[in-house]
Amino acid sequence: MTPSTEVINNLAEAGYRACIAPIERLADLEAEYKMITARDVWRRSPHLSQHRFDFAPPIDFPARSIIVIAAPVTPVRLGFIYRGIHHSFEAPPLSGDYDRVVARIIKIITDAIGTHGYRLADSNLPTKVLASHTGLLQNGINNMGYIEGMGSFFRLTSFFSDLPAVDDTWGEQHRVAPSCRECGLCIEACPTQCISQEVYDVSRCLSLLSKEPSDFPDWVKKRWHNSLIGCRVCQQVCPMNHDVINSAANVAEFSEAETLAILSGVDLDKLNQSTRDKLRYFHLAPFYSILPRNLRLLLEKSGEPA
User: Fold this and answer.
1) Cα(158)–Cα(104) distance, rounded to whole angstroms?
2) Integer Cα distance of 26 and 22 in angstroms
3) 27-51 pLDDT per residue, tens
4) Bridge partners of 89?
5) Domain, as residue range, for 25
6) 249: closest CA among 77, 123, 84?
7) How far apart are CA 245 and CA 228, in angstroms?
8) Long-range CB contact pairs, 266-273, < 8 A, 24+
9) Are residues 265 and 193 in the same domain?
């Protein structure tokens, strides 16, 4: 068994999926990313344009490969008390636990390659594009990535290594899941009609619009809002998420006092420690400037003027 195969197999035994691309593909990845960021919709979007990646390989050793790994995550719901009524809302499937997941992934990889004298280094790459080209994921027509057994609920991380990439699985085209071509449920369900079999219009995607600091366009209806950050409609109806989506559960609660403080727009650093900790743990702190707006819209949709 080659060291690269050992890495992939050991990660799979721990519940992860991985692919290894030769370092020569780094130039292809950077060129594609430059094309993506040159698009008008990207340059006009405060949320998209803030993304920054670094394509420089490590200086400590000559990198020979890029390892990209997917770890499953659980759909998240957060509870809020408002006017004595409990509300449960979808949130991004992110949590502070992921730091421990990454530490475990690093240990699995280094345990496998260290005995062969190979090394590992952090990277900051556009992992979804990378995972798509390597075949780690398939793309939905809704622009979501899907992995068998995880659906669209996973997080990606990547590393540089001097481990040789034995099999180059790189595909020039992004693969669309065959089942998407025969389905169309997300097309019917999408409230903004940003999805079709031919094109995905990110400028109309509610997931992006909900992350922008500007007000929603007038054509966005209140009843369409469904998540604290982003949109889950296409993921909820997707058959590839059938075994995953129903596992969502309330994982944290915000008291009425905490809910009111968020709605009032109190500065993040002036919230009580418990509230700040929860927002940071579920990666909502970076979105705190828009969280009061989005939470208010969800409460209003629930029939609670906020």
Assistant:
1) 13
2) 8
3) 999 999 999 999 999 999 999 999 8
4) 78
5) 3-74+90-174
6) 77
7) 17
8) none
9) yes
- pTM, to two decimals: 0.93
Q: Is the pLDDT of residue 222 over 90?
A: no
Q: Are 147 and 154 in contact (CB under 8 A)?
A: yes
CA 167/CA 122 separation, integer angstroms? 22
Cβ–Cβ < 8 Å for 130, 167: no
Q: Cβ contacts of residue 225 below 8 Å, gap of 6+? A: 206, 210, 294, 297, 298, 301
Q: What is the pLDDT of residue 12?
A: 97
Do 247 and 77 form a contact (C-beta atoms < 8 A)? no
CA 26/CA 268 separation, integer angstroms: 38
Count helices and strands (H / E) in the chain: 13, 9
State the amino acid at position 306 in one-letter form.
Answer: A
Q: Amino acid letter at 140?
A: G
* pLDDT of 249 strictly over 80: no
Q: What is the DSSP letter of 152?
A: T
145-178 pLDDT per residue, tens: 999 999 999 999 999 999 999 888 899 888 899 9
How far from 176 is each of 137, 139, 154, 187, CA to CA, in Å?
9, 5, 18, 15
Across the chain, mean pLDDT equals: 94
Residues 17 and 45 both lie in one domain? yes
**Within a domain: residue 80?**
no
Rounded to whole angstroms, how far apart are CA atoms 304 and 306?
Answer: 6
Least confident residue range of 115-129, 178-192, 200-214, 237-251:
237-251
Q: Which two tokens mark 229?
A: 């950050």
Residue type for position 65 = S
CATH number at residue 35: 3.40.109
